[in-house]
Design brief:
This protein has ten helices and no strands. The chain is an all-alpha fold. The protein has one domain. The longest helix is centred in the last third of the chain and has 34 residues. The radius of gyration is 18 Å and the shape is globular. It starts with a helix and ends with a helix.
Length: 204
C-alpha cells in the first residue's frame, strides 16, 4: 500500500510548485521562517477536506455537479485575486518588505488553508491518485485511503517547510534593495493572477 512507487509519486506531486508553495515562499520572503512554517501548516490542513471528500466519495459528487464545482472554483479564483492585491498593496498581508513585521500565525495558516480548500480540483485529484495504491480489500479501503492521505499530508508539510526555510534564508540577501522588493511583490501578484486564471479555466 505505502509503496516506494506511491512515495515517489506523492513526492513529485508535492515538489511541483503550486499555489501552496508560492504562498509559503511569499511568507518566508516577506516575514521569515516562522511565518513560512505557519503557511506550511495551513496549506497542509487545507488538504484535509479534499482527502475526506475522496475517501467518502463526495469528490465524485463534486466532479459530476457543475454548479457545485463552479461555486467552489470561482470562490477560489476570487481569493487568489485577493491575494494578488495583498501582494501589491503597501502593507498588504503578502507584501515583501524589509521590516520584520509579524502577523498572527493563525491568520497566516488560515490563508494557506483557504487556498487549498477553495480549489475543487484537489478532491478530484485525490480520487484519481489514491485508489490505484489500495490493496483491493473493500473492508479496509477507507482506512487505507486515510493512511495514504496522512502520508501525503506529511510529505506536503515537510516539502513546504523546506521551501519556506529556503525563502527565509534568502530574505536578507534579497531585501537590501527597494527595487528587488518591488519586483518581488509584482512577481507574486502576477503569479497569483495567473493561478486564478488557470483555476477559472478548469472544468469539472
Amino acid at each position: 500500500m505505502i509503496s516506494t512507487q506511491f512515495l515517489l509519486t506523492a513526492l513529485v506531486v508535492v515538489i511541483a510548485p503550486g499555489t501552496g508553495v508560492i504562498y509559503t515562499l511569499a511568507m518566508g520572503l516577506g516575514q521569515g521562517r516562522q511565518a513560512a512554517i505557519w503557511a506550511a501548516v495551513g496549506g497542509t490542513f487545507g488538504i484535509v477536506p479534499h482527502l475526506a471528500a475522496a475517501t467518502l466519495g463526495l469528490a465524485a459528487v463534486l466532479h459530476t455537479s457543475a454548479l457545485l464545482f463552479n461555486v467552489v472554483k470561482f470562490a477560489g479564483v476570487a481569493y487568489l485575486l485577493y491575494l494578488a492585491w495583498q501582494a501589491l498593496r503597501s502593507g498588504g498581508a503578502l507584501s515583501v518588505t524589509a521590516d520584520h513585521r509579524k502577523q498572527n500565525g493563525i491568520a497566516i495558516a488560515r490563508r494557506g488553508a483557504l487556498i487549498n480548500i477553495l480549489n475543487p480540483k484537489l478532491s478530484v485529484f485525490f480520487l484519481a491518485l489514491l485508489p490505484p495504491f489500495l490493496s483491493g480489500n473493500p473492508a479496509t479501503a477507507s482506512l487505507e485511503m486515510a493512511l495514504l492521505g496522512a502520508v501525503f499530508m506529511l510529505l506536503t508539510f515537510l516539502v513546504f517547510v523546506l521551501y519556506g526555510v529556503f525563502a527565509a534564508k534568502a530574505r536578507d540577501l534579497l531585501l537590501g534593495s527597494a527595487a528587488v522588493m518591488r519586483w518581488l511583490n509584482r512577481g507574486f501578484a502576477a503569479i497569483f493572477v495567473a493561478l486564478a486564471g488557470r483555476l477559472a479555466l478548469e472544468r469539472a
